[in-house]
Amino acid sequence: MKYHVPVLLNESIEGLNINPKGIYIDATFGGGGHSTAILKKLDGGHLFGFDQDADAKQNAPQSEQFTFVYHNFAYVKNFMQFFEVGQVDGILADLGVSSHHFDEAERGFSFRFDGPLDMRMDRSVKKSAANVVNEYDEQQLTDVFKNYGEIANARRLAQEIISRRSIAPIRTTEELKQIGQRFCNPQTESKYLSQIFQALRIEVNNEMQALKDFLQGGLEILKPKGRFVVITYHSLEDRLVKNFFKTGNIEGKMEQDFYGNVRTPFTAISKKVIVPSDEEIKENNRARSAKLRIVEKNG
Questions:
Q1: Domain boundary at 204, 232, 262, which?
Q2: pTM for the complete prediction?
Q3: CATH (domain of 55)
Q4: What is residue 1's predicted lDDT score, i.e. its pLDDT?
Q5: Whole-angstrom Cα distance, residue 85 to residue 21?
Q6: Does residue 105 lie within any of the structural domains?
Q7: Half-sphere exposure for 168 (CA within 13 Å, toward CB)
Q8: Phi, psi at residue 180, to the nearest 5°?
């Protein structure tokens, strides 16, 4: 089964600064590419791999040093408590959507294939993209497209969706694609449709709140001198990660001590954001928007 090709693999693994006997978390297990690389460096240590997609279980390595956690990474702190792990040496998250999801028509993540409007990472939850498109009111739809897709004509798009669904429910990715095509320049059609589908995916999977919970929980369970490594793919999540790593809080508010020095629980390991090489982008086009940030928890 084709999954997400690990992006910035060497850079992210190097960024973890792995202690062979340490405890690590791969918060976005997927196809297990990053986990496999981490396990090769462990000798007496342990790795926990999180994924809310049941399909990812098939990729779990049979190793005494690995535990697969079938759950959303928002709950890393809770599960470490469950496994009686006080603190961990490093946390890695690759926030990209797996190639597996984009390439499976029945999952409904991509406008490239005609399939059901689904987009659920965890198919046990009830709300799908079809529910959002057919049940949200105009303001709710506008907010989703504006806030999560950064779409300029979000209200017009929402109004057209409501008009169309009054005739018949919108059930497929192709139907949504045809609506979106009416509101974009043919030269930028792919980008516009991507923004629509991104917005719905984020809403369906509550991705921004999950990311906030993950970052906060990760900070709390990370050991002093432990590394936090995150790869982002769009401006919304990257802005959130950047602000959190800079300030240690979700709001991105700068706190200063008596002398005016910025108080933060992290020290940046990579002063500049790390991006894929031209070679990697050529080999894996989905790496083109990736940004890697690495910080170490102050001790």
A1: 204
A2: 0.93
A3: 3.40.50.150
A4: 45
A5: 14
A6: no
A7: 4
A8: -60, -35
